[in-house]
Amino acid sequence: MLVWVGVALLGGVGAIGRFVLDDAVSGAAGSNLPWGTFAVNVSGAFLLGLLSGASVDGDPLLLAGVALLGSYTTFSTWLFESHRLGEQRRPYALALNLAGSLVLGLAAAELGRLIGGAF
C-alpha cells in the first residue's frame, strides 16, 4: 500500500516538474517552437536511461521510472504540438520537432544508460 501512495505522490511531483521546466524553457526560448516539451522529454529520456543503465528494478523502478518520470515526460503533448505545427503549415518546424525529439531523445537515453552502467 505504501508503494502506491508513493506512486501517487511522485506522479504529482513529476507532473509539477514538467510544468515548471516547460514554462521556464518556453519563456527563455521565446520561440514558436515547443522547446519546453522538447527539454522535458529529452531530459526524461536521459533519466530513464540512467535508471536502466543502473539496473534499477522492482519498487524503485516503479516509483522513479513509472510514477515520477512517467508523469514528467509527455508523449501526448509532443504529438499535439507537432500536429499544431502541421496545421500551421510549418513543415520545417514540424520535421525539426519530430525528428529532433526522436533522435536526441534516443541519444539522451543511451547516454544515460551508459552513465548509469558505470555505477
Overall description:
- By secondary structure, this protein is mainly α.
- It has one domain.
- Helices cover 86% and strands 0% of the residues.
- The protein has helices at residues 2-29, 35-53, 58-72, 75-87, 91-117.
- Helix 2 (35-53) packs antiparallel against helix 3, helix 2 packs parallel to helix 5 (91-117) and helix 4 packs antiparallel against helix 5 (91-117).
- The longest helix is centred in the N-terminal third of the chain and has 28 residues, at 2-29.
- The protein is globular and about 45 Å long.
- The chain starts with a helix and ends with a helix.
- The mean pLDDT is 96.
Helical content stands at over 70%
Mean pLDDT: 96
N- and C-termini, Cα separation: 30 Å
- Count of separate structural domains: 1
Radius of gyration: 15 Å
Task: Enumerate how many helices there are, as a single number.
Answer: 5
